[in-house]
TrEMBL record:
Swiss-Prot/TrEMBL keywords: Signal
Record organism: Stenotrophomonas nitritireducens
Residues making up the signal peptide according to the UniProt record: 1-24
Keyword Signal: yes
Record-linked InterPro entries: MlaC/ttg2D, Tgt2/MlaC_sf
Native organism taxonomy: Bacteria, Pseudomonadati, Pseudomonadota, Gammaproteobacteria, Lysobacterales
Protein name per Swiss-Prot or TrEMBL: Organic solvent ABC transporter
Stretches of the chain forming a coiled coil according to its record: none
Length: 222
């Protein structure tokens, strides 16, 4: 159960601006400091996405294109997809054209959506999302917002969001679940293919499905 939870959470990071936004209603901890603008971005999005998934569940099941459109909208709204893609590309993205980076970012997000998107509609119960605090990132890179995913009968799962200010709007560029970064996870996965192929070629294979973005073990029955 825990493996499947974390797989879905991690996959959702690229789909819905943050991994647990589609899985948990935000609930600030009573003892935590008042959330900043960055933290409120995460907390507000979680409530908005949860509400939409609950009220539009039947529509989304009947019309996967509507679910994809909703996820794309949330992704553009709260996730710094192209910057995160550059971090995933690492040395392979040095000097790469913005258009190629965007091509890779979009292909990876679409690949994840095709593989894991339906799991967003299979959420059972009502997990809660507890705000713990935040800290500045080194080098004035932004802030880290610390939270816990709380589920009945389970130990709280630490989830941290790395965010930066983009033109006056706070956006997420990495998510760490129990200390595991999704950026680093995909950076490790795509290092070998990018040593052999161009960014465009890898993006094309992701788009065609001949290469898969792996957020962990595929959900059972998928």
């Amino acid at each position: 159960m825990k493996t499947r939870l974390l797989t879905t959470v991690l996959a959702s990071a690229l789909l819905a601006a943050a991994p647990t936004l589609a899985m948990a209603q935000a609930r600030p901890a009573a003892t935590a400091a008042q959330p900043s603008a960055a933290a409120r971005t995460v907390l507000d999005a979680s409530s908005r996405i949860l509400s939409a998934l609950e009220t539009r569940r039947a529509e989304f099941r009947a019309n996967p294109a509507a679910l994809r459109g909703f996820i794309d909208s949330e992704l553009s709204r709260g996730f710094d997809r192209d910057y995160a893609a550059r971090l995933v590309l690492g040395v392979h993205g040095r000097g790469a054209a913005d258009a190629d980076v965007k091509l890779f970012a979009d292909a990876m997000a679409d690949n994840l959506m095709a593989r894991y998107g339906s799991t967003l509609l299979d959420i059972q119960g009502k997990p809660s999302f507890r705000y713990k605090g935040e800290a500045a990132l080194p080098g004035n890179r932004g802030v880290k917002v610390s939270t816990e995913l709380v589920r009945a009968g389970s130990e709280p799962t630490p989830v941290e969001y790395l965010m930066r200010d983009v033109g006056g709007q706070w956006k997420i560029f990495d998510v760490m679940i129990e200390g595991i970064s999704y950026v680093q996870t995909f950076k490790n996965q795509f290092d070998a293919p990018l040593r052999q192929k161009s960014i465009k070629d890898v993006a094309a294979e992701l788009r065609s499905g001949s290469m898969q973005a792996n957020a962990g073990p595929a959900p059972r029955g998928k």
